[in-house]
Write a structure and sequence with these properties.
It contains 18 helices and 18 strands. By secondary structure, the chain is an alpha/beta fold. A hairpin with a 4-residue loop joins strand 13 and strand 14 (about 485-495). The protein is globular, with a radius of gyration of 27 Å. This is UPF0613 protein PB24D3.06c.
C-alpha cells in the first residue's frame, strides 16, 4: 500500500521519433520525481509530483528521500488505442537483449516512484537484463477505479508489445506493495504468463492490515466498518463500479475516489486483493498463492511503516513462501531488509535489495532456478481427469529414493489446492516394534524401507474406504520422524472437498510380494525417472540429518539398502501410465 494524492506531468520540450520505418514512437528523456512536503500524519498520506525533462542525460542517483531521482531512457506507448505508456530505463546502448524486468508499483505509484529503479536498472544491465515500468489503468489516481483484472489485462498488452516490438522472450515481474498482488494475480490469469520466469515481491503487505498500521480514532474505525457494509450492499445490487463518498477514500489517505468494488477488495478478508494478511490460515494462503509456479523472491522491510506492530513480518514471509507451489521445489528466496521502509528509501536497504534481485536473476540465467512447467501441465491433466471421474481420482506417484516424490507431491498439492489430498506411503511403514518381533529382527530394522517392511494391505483398506465407503472423512496415518514410527489418524481425507487422492511412495507400481492388489486401485500411475547415482547422492545428503549415525555409517547404509531398494523400484517402471524424466524436465507416455 503506497498512497500519493497527486501526480502531474509536463511534456518534454524535446521529442525524439525513433525508427519511423517500424512505426515506433518514443520519447527519449530523463524522468525526475520531485517530492512534496508531508503535512498530514495519516497512513499513506504524502504528496508527489513528477516532471519529464527533455534533455537525454543521466544524473547521478543519490539514494535519499530528499534527493532527486532520475533516469535516462525511452518513454513509449505500448497501447496505441488507449495511449498507455511505459518507460525503459537506460541509454540507447543499454536497451538491448531479450530479458526484461517489468516493475509494477503500488497504489498511486507511477513512473520512477520506485526510487531504487534507476540503480536497479544499472545493476541488471551488467547481466543483460532490461528494465521497464508501465503506466497501468490503476496507476496514479486511477487506483480507486482499478482492479487486479484490469492490471492483468494491461500487463498482457505490455508483454505482447515487448515480445513483438522489443524482442523480449524472458520476463521477471517485480511487484512493489499492492503491485505484488498484480504479479501474483497475473500468474493465474495472464494470457502472456508463459513469458514470466520469475517474480519479485517487494513489500508484500496487507492493505487491509495497513489501515491499522497507525492508531485510528473510534470515528474512523466506525466509518471503516460502515463503508465496508455499504460497499458490500452496492456490489450485491450490481453497483460495484459506482463510487463511494469521498470520505471512504480518505480512510486510505488521499482525497481521490474509490469504487465500491475496489474498497471491498482492499478491506474485506479474503477479497481479491487480500493475499498477504497475517490472519489468513495456511489453507487460505495456499488458495491465494498456491498457483505461484515460478521462482519467487520476497523482500520484506523490517521497518515497513504499513505493517502493524502485531504482525511478525519474518514469520509471515515464511508462511507466504510456504504456500507457493515453488516452495517445495526450493524455488523461493527471501530477504529481510533492516531499514528503508515500505519503499526501500535508505541507501543500505536499496543496496541489499538490488543485490538480492541481481543474484535472483543471475540464478535464473544459470538455470539454478526454473519454472515448474511439467508439474503445472501435470496438475492441469489431473484436474481434467478428476472432473471426468465419478469418484475421487486415485493417483500413484512412484520413484526411486531421492527421485523427488515428496517434492513433486508438495508442488501438486499446492497447484491443486484445495482439491488434492496427499498420502505418503511412509505412513504405512511397519512399526519398529513389529519389525523387532520378527525372527530376522536386526536385519529387518536395518533394511527398513525395503518392500517387505511396509503394510500394503493397510493402504489398500484405506483406499477402499475412499472409493467404496460413504463416510465423510477417512483418516490416514503419517510418519513421525521425531519418534521414528507411523502415527495413526493424522491425515484426513474429506469427501466433500478432495477430488484427487495422490499417494506417493516407492513400491506403488510393484506387482510382486503382495503389492499387486494395491497397484490395481489406482486410476493413473506416474513414475518419476531419475539418474540412480544422483538419487543415491541426494539420499546420502538428506540422511546426514539422522541423529546417532556417523557419515560413514550413513553412506554405507545408503549403498547397501537404498541402492538395493532403488533397483527394486526400477523393475516396475513399465507399469506407469506416465513417466516423467525429472532430470531432463520432460515427460514421455
Amino acid at each position: 500500500m503506497q498512497i500519493a494524492p497527486s501526480a502531474t506531468w509536463k511534456l518534454p520540450h524535446l521529442v525524439h521519433i525513433a525508427s519511423p520505418s517500424t512505426q515506433r514512437l518514443g520519447i527519449s528523456c530523463a524522468l525526475q520525481p520531485v517530492l512534496g512536503a508531508t503535512s498530514i500524519a495519516v497512513v499513506g498520506r504524502f504528496n508527489r509530483k513528477f516532471k519529464v525533462a527533455g534533455a537525454r542525460q543521466s544524473h547521478p542517483v543519490q539514494m535519499s528521500s530528499t534527493c532527486e531521482t532520475s533516469s535516462a531512457g525511452e518513454l513509449f506507448l505500448y497501447d496505441q488505442n488507449l495511449g498507455y505508456a511505459a518507460f525503459e530505463a537506460g541509454d540507447p546502448g543499454d536497451r538491448l537483449g531479450s530479458k526484461a524486468l517489468v516493475c509494477v508499483g503500488g497504489l498511486t505509484d507511477g513512473l520512477l516512484s520506485l526510487r531504487y529503479l534507476p540503480n536497479l536498472a544499472k545493476a541488471l544491465k551488467t547481466l543483460g537484463w532490461r528494465t521497464f515500468q508501465p503506466v497501468l489503468q490503476s496507476s496514479y489516481r486511477g487506483w480507486g477505479f482499478g482492479s487486479l483484472q484490469d492490471d492483468a489485462e494491461g500487463l498482457d498488452k505490455l508483454l505482447s508489445f515487448l515480445e513483438t516490438n522489443r524482442g523480449i522472450s524472458k520476463v521477471v515481474v517485480l511487484g512493489s506493495s499492492t503491485g505484488c498482488q498484480d504479479a501474483v494475480h497475473f500468474l493465474k490469469v495472464g494470457m502472456k504468463k508463459s513469458l514470466v520466469h520469475g517474480i519479485v515481491l517487494q513489500a508484500p503487505v496487507s492493505d487491509r492490515e495497513a489501515l491499522l498500521a497507525e492508531q485510528r480514532s473510534e470515528d474512523e474505525l466506525t466509518q471503516l466498518e460502515r463503508f465496508k457494509q455499504v460497499a458490500s450492499q452496492m456490489i450485491s445490487e450490481g453497483k460495484g463500479s459506482e463510487v463511494l463518498p469521498r470520505s471512504a477514500c480518505q480512510l486510505f489517505g488521499p482525497p481521490d475516489v474509490i469504487t465500491a468494488y475496489r474498497f471491498d477488495s482492499l478491506t474485506r478478508r479474503m477479497a481479491n486483493d487480500d493475499m498477504f494478511s497475517s490472519d489468513l490460515t495456511e489453507s487460505e494462503l495456499r488458495e491465494k498463492l498456491g498457483h505461484v509456479n515460478v521462482p519467487c523472491l520476497l523482500a520484506i522491510s523490517a521497518d515497513d511503516e504499513y505493517v502493524p506492530p502485531f504482525v511478525d513480518s519474518t514469520a509471515l514471509c515464511h508462511r507466504m513462501a510456504n504456500a507457493m507451489a515453488a516452495f517445495p521445489a526450493n524455488l523461493t528466496r527471501s530477504v529481510i531488509l533492516p531499514n528503508g521502509g515500505h519503499g526501500v528509501r535508505s541507501p543500505e536497504g536499496q543496496a541489499q535489495f538490488i543485490n538480492a534481485v541481481t543474484d535472483f536473476v543471475s540464478d535464473l540465467d544459470q538455470k539454478l532456478l526454473r519454472r515448474l512447467d511439467w508439474e503445472t501441465a501435470l496438475a492441469a491433466d489431473l484436474q481434467d481427469r478428476a472432473a471426468a471421474c465419478g469418484r475421487p481420482l486415485l493417483v500413484a506417484l512412484a520413484g526411486m529414493p531421492g527421485a523427488g516424490k515428496s517434492t513433486t507431491s508438495g508442488v501438486l498439492r499446492r497447484l491443486l489446492h484445495p482439491k488434492c489430498f496427499v498420502v505418503p506411503l511412509d505412513g504405512f511403514h511397519v512399526p519398529l516394534q513389529s519389525l523387532r518381533s520378527r525372527p530376522d529382527a536386526d536385519d529387518a530394522v536395518y533394511r527398513r524401507g525395503a518392500a517387505d517392511t511396509f503394510d500394503p494391505e493397510g493402504l489398500c483398506e484405506k483406499l477402499r474406504q475412499v472409493v467404496e465407503g460413504q463416510e465423510p472423512k477417512v483418516w490416514f496415518p503419517d510418519f513421525d520422524h521425531a519418534v521414528g514410527d507411523p502415527v495413526d489418524d493424522t491425515l484426513c481425507f474429506e469427501r466433500s472437498l478432495h477430488r484427487i487422492v495422490l499417494v506417493e511412495g516407492l513400491y506403488l507400481l510393484r506387482q510382486q510380494d503382495g503389492w499387486g492388489s494395491l497397484a490395481d486401485f489406482f486410476d493413473y500411475k506416474i513414475y518419476l525417472e531419475a539418474d540412480l547415482e544422483e538419487c543415491i547422492a541426494r539420499v546420502k545428503e538428506r540422511n546426514k540429518a539422522i541423529p546417532g549415525y556417523t557419515p560413514e555409517e550413513i553412506d554405507r547404509r545408503c549403498d547397501e539398502v537404498d541402492r538395493a531398494n532403488a533397483k527394486v523400484v526400477q523393475e516396475s517402471v513399465n507399469q506407469a501410465d506416465l513417466i516423467v524424466q525429472t532430470d531432463l524436465d520432460k515427460a514421455s507416455r
